[in-house]
Amino acid sequence: MKTEQKRWLIICVVATFFMSNSSCNKVVQGVPQVPCYFIFGDSLADNGNNNRIATMARADYLPYGIDFPRGSTGRFSNGKTVVDVITELLGFNDYIQPYANASGREILRGVNYASAAAGIRDETGQQLGARISFGGQVNNYVTTVSHIVGILGNANLAANHIKKCIFSIGLGSNDYLNNYFMRDYYDTSHRYTAKKYADALIQQYAKQIRILYNYGARKFVFNGIGPIGCSPNSLAQYSQDGSTCVAKINSANQMFNRRLISLVDYFNENLPDAKFIYINNYGIFRDLINRPKNFGFRVTNKGCCGVGRNNGQITCLPFQTPCQNRNNYIFWDAFHPTEAASTIVGRRSYSAASSTDVYPIDIRRLAQL
């Protein structure tokens, strides 16, 4: 098993996983609630940025996209991702373009910079090949800002446009999956305790957020890490019974999330004219795991497609036949949620179903500010 994992390595992220039975294929038509939506993240949000780079972390082949109207675009899902769902709920008439493809005036409505296997740390995911780290994504945003200034004519107009936009940041999962807990490739677990590692991640995270703020960002969404220890990959590797979540991994994830919440408070108090919120992906996903029937799910510990124990050791292979009843599964592959799961997390991020889903407000209210 270990040889097979090293051969295929471990494609990106688990993170933040979610739910629902809905499978809308069309973007909601209407007037967007904000003028633009900028997305920073990993494979949970990547919609094509890794397609043209030398990496094993890519999903531009079937069965990825099997239920997406445009087919296999590079999304690590059978259909829509969480940010796609939120894009719809915000009222955009099309999905946000990946940085690799975005050009001209379309950048005024936002750009998706997410890159599969990316982490907060630059070295994270390097065993998979090329990827665009958080720092690289922020650099790409800075380039975008210069283009927006050129399109709108001056810096003041650009700043007035950008300050109304929502900035979604969803990184950190790979810093555990494809770094801290991958001891054969990285020494971070030997150099840091779990607490010190979370501190180091948050320090680097905060540095990038300050750059975004200095370049006009004012409405921030911090996406917490989901319970990675409950992913099919973690269950296949570390769980004795194949269904009990791995406590040591989830504990480390929660350490990071608690510090991310504190960062929300710190920035809300210290960065003028900005608003920061936190999405409790860990809590939302555990809700799905603990009460799957309430949300229409039947399978919580297996991937709909993939290879290895319970389809949980590696991701979907090209042209592999996935399960037929995809809406019954929380996980699409060893790491990523199905469209059905992503729909729920997107809805609960946008409009909280519980006071614990978000902190201090949800995306809907953030858009109104």
Automatic annotation (TrEMBL):
<keyword id="KW-0378">Hydrolase</keyword>
<keyword id="KW-0732">Signal</keyword>
<dbReference type="InterPro" id="IPR035669">
    <property type="entry name" value="SGNH_plant_lipase-like"/>
</dbReference>
<comment type="similarity">
    <text>Belongs to the 'GDSL' lipolytic enzyme family.</text>
</comment>
<keyword id="KW-0964">Secreted</keyword>
<feature type="signal peptide">
    <location>
        <begin position="1"/>
        <end position="24"/>
    </location>
</feature>
<dbReference type="GO" id="GO:0016042">
    <property type="term" value="P:lipid catabolic process"/>
</dbReference>
<dbReference type="InterPro" id="IPR001087">
    <property type="entry name" value="GDSL"/>
</dbReference>
<keyword id="KW-0443">Lipid metabolism</keyword>
<dbReference type="Pfam" id="PF00657">
    <property type="entry name" value="Lipase_GDSL"/>
</dbReference>
<dbReference type="InterPro" id="IPR051238">
    <property type="entry name" value="GDSL_esterase/lipase"/>
</dbReference>
<dbReference type="GO" id="GO:0005576">
    <property type="term" value="C:extracellular region"/>
</dbReference>
<dbReference type="GO" id="GO:0004806">
    <property type="term" value="F:triacylglycerol lipase activity"/>
</dbReference>
<keyword id="KW-0442">Lipid degradation</keyword>
<protein>
    <submittedName>
        <fullName>Putative SGNH hydrolase-type esterase domain-containing protein</fullName>
        <ecNumber>3.1.1.3</ecNumber>
    </submittedName>
</protein>
<dbReference type="InterPro" id="IPR036514">
    <property type="entry name" value="SGNH_hydro_sf"/>
</dbReference>
